[in-house]
Amino acid sequence: MTTPMVRIQDLSVEFGRGAQRVRAVRGVSFDIAPGEVLGLVGESGSGKSTLGRALIQLIQASGGSVQFEGQELMGLSQAQMRPLRRQVQMVFQDPSLNPRQRAGAMLAEVLSTHGLHTGAARAPRIAELLHIVGLKPEHASRFSHEFSGGQKQRLGIARALAAEPRFIVADEPLSALDMSIQAQIVNLLIGLRQQLGLTLLFISHDLDVVQYLCDRVVVLYLGRVMEIAPTADLFDAPAHPYTQALLSAAPIPDPTQAAPQVHLLGDPPSPLNPPSGCVFRTRCPHAIAACAEQVPELTPTGAGRWVACLRHTEWT
Amino acid sequence: MTALLPRLHVRDLHTRLLQGDSPLPLVRGVSFDLHDGQTLALVGESGSGKSLTALSLMRLLARNARWECSGQALLTDAQGQQHDMLKVSDEHMRQLRGHQIAMIFQEPMTCLNPVLTVGEQIAESVRLHLGLDTRAARAQALRALEQVEMPAARQRLDEYPHQLSGGMRQRVMIAMAMVCEPRVLIADEPTTALDVTIQAQILALMSRLQKDTGMSMLFITHNLGVVAHHAERVAVMYAGQVVEQAGVHELFAKPAHPYTQGLLACLPGRARQLARQSGQAVALQDIPGQAPAMNRLGSGCSFAERCSVSLPACQLQAPPWLGIATHARLCHLEGHP
Question: Chain B residue with minimal CA distance to A212?
Answer without folding.
Answer: B268
